[in-house]
Design a protein that fits this description.
Elements (H helix, E strand, L loop, with lengths): L3 E3 L2 E4 L2 E3 L28 E2 L12 H10 L4 H6 L8 H11 L5 E7 L1 H12 L11 E4 L4 H10 L10 E4 L7 H14 L6 E5 L11 H13 L3 E5 L22 E6 L11 E7 H10 L7 H10 L2 H6 L5 H25 L3 E2 L8 E5 L4 H7 L2 E2 L1 E2 L13 E5 L4 H22 L1
Parallel strand pairs: 4-14, 6-7, 6-8, 8-9, 9-10
Antiparallel strand pairs: 1-2, 2-3, 5-11, 10-11, 12-13, 13-16, 15-16
Helix pairs in contact: 1-9, 4-5, 6-7, 11-13
């Protein structure tokens, strides 16, 4: 099929091929894998792309939805504006769960942690009083963080908001990468930065220790930066390793969380942010009200309330999250070992995080597509690190049986590649 250029975004085979710093649509090939492909193999499709959970929401969600949608609660929740404009009520339960004082703001918004990240990038540069700022990241990382900064800042604005990524060796563990970022930030003397770290990292699934995040918090505090720690994939990491534990100590830190990944509610698009009171007041004064509709408020008011689970004899939310982490590790550890045995490279990754970054032969992404395996392409992260499509972000298989199917196809791909080299 011919290639057509439209506004510098290349459309090929009917699919958007993203350029660095363009918004990345992770779902661009999802749902169309069964279309006819050249030399298509007769194989069932396997979706190892998007980061939503195979294991579904907590069992309590059945009870919650029946209570709300099967009663008179839902109708007024849809008819009238939500009474809780900023979702302060469920924020109270988050403060209780994490034992946070009242002067720590909990912000809940729509479109997941991604939507809150966008709001932060769009709104909070105002606190710099027009001085030039920028975002400093650690590549590879969530590519739309870079895209949002390029979209929002330009030469035509009264201030610019460029993105820069520090790019340590891919083979380093994530804690060492964060410490490398600390040294790099110390070497930059001018200006303020929004420093963005996704922890666990997307696409590697690796996790940095709380000590390394604390080191970064100290450095960025000295530079009067705003530090954003995106913990969208962090639910299965022990709570004592979360940067939430540092927010009271460092008032320039914002921690993002999500109900999309481990909790299994990606379709609800709920994001949670924990920030200091000074930053939180500015943020609340700039963002839109009614960010969460009334029906979703009714749901999360119950889901985040531990007393609701006790009252109704339901399995605690923490039990569900722990179980999902166990199931991820049960498959991820042998899957990673088998992929490496086949000759592929797997970058450092955490056992209980459902994604990993794999390097294969040239054209690896397209080979997987031919073998009906949907993953995320390395070049989608090129705006944050020079990855090509010999790298892919792959989600862990949902079961040992699916793992065996995936590794069998990976074995065929590497065998074909090796045979061409002989």
């Amino acid at each position: 099929m011919a290639t057509v250029k439209i506004n510098e975004i290349v459309i090929k085979n009917g699919l958007p091929i993203r350029q660095p710093h363009a918004m990345v649509d992770y779902a661009s090939r999802r749902g169309i894998i069964t279309q006819h492909l050249p030399n298509q193999l007769d194989l069932p499709s396997l979706d190892l792309g998007l980061g939503d959970s195979y294991f579904g929401p907590p069992q309590a969600m059945v009870h919650i939805c029946k209570e709300i949608l099967g009663s008179d609660i839902a109708s007024p929740s849809m008819q009238f504006y939500p009474p809780d404009r900023f979702c302060e009520h469920p924020g109270k339960y988050i403060r209780e769960t994490w034992r946070l004082p009242d002067n720590v703001n909990v912000v809940i918004g729509g479109e997941g942690s991604y939507g809150l990240l966008r709001d932060i990038i769009v709104n909070l540069p105002e606190i710099t009083n027009g001085h030039e700022v920028g975002m400093l990241g650690i590549g590879p990382q969530f590519p739309n963080a870079a895209a949002l900064t390029h979209l929002h800042g330009s030469e035509d604005h009264r201030w610019r908001f460029p993105y820069e990524s520090h790019q340590p060796d891919l083979k380093m563990c994530y804690s060492d990468k964060v410490r490398s970022l600390c040294k790099y930030r110390e070497s930059i003397n001018q200006g303020h930065r929004f420093v963005y770290v996704d922890n666990p990292n997307n696409p590697t699934g690796d996790h940095a220790s709380l000590d390394s995040i604390r080191d970064l918090a100290i450095v960025t505090s000295e530079r009067s930066d705003l530090l954003i720690i995106d913990e969208a994939y962090s639910d299965t990491i022990p709570k004592h390793e979360s940067a939430i534990n540092l927010v009271e100590e460092f008032d320039h830190m914002i921690v993002l969380r999500s109900l999309s990944k481990t909790v299994g509610l990606a379709g609800m698009r709920i994001g949670i942010s924990i920030m200091s009171e000074p930053v939180g007041k500015v943020f609340d004064s700039l963002r839109l009200v009614f960010a969460i509709d009334g029906v979703r408020q009714q749901i999360i008011n119950r889901l985040l309330n531990p007393y609701y689970f006790i009252k109704n004899g339901l399995e605690p939310l923490e039990t569900h999250i722990s179980s999902v982490g166990d199931r991820i590790a049960f498959t991820k550890v042998p899957m990673r070992e088998e992929i490496q045995r086949l000759g592929y490279k797997v970058m450092p990754t955490h056992d209980r995080v459902p994604i990993m970054l794999i390097q294969g032969p040239d054209g690896f992404y397209d080979s997987l597509y031919q073998y009906q395996i949907v993953v995320e392409r390395g070049s989608d992260f090129a705006g944050t690190y020079p990855l090509d499509d010999s790298y892919v972000r792959m989600k862990v298989a949902r079961s040992p049986g699916e793992m065996d199917e995936v590794t069998q196809r990976l074995g065929e791909i590497i065998s074909k590649h090796n045979s061409k080299l002989i």
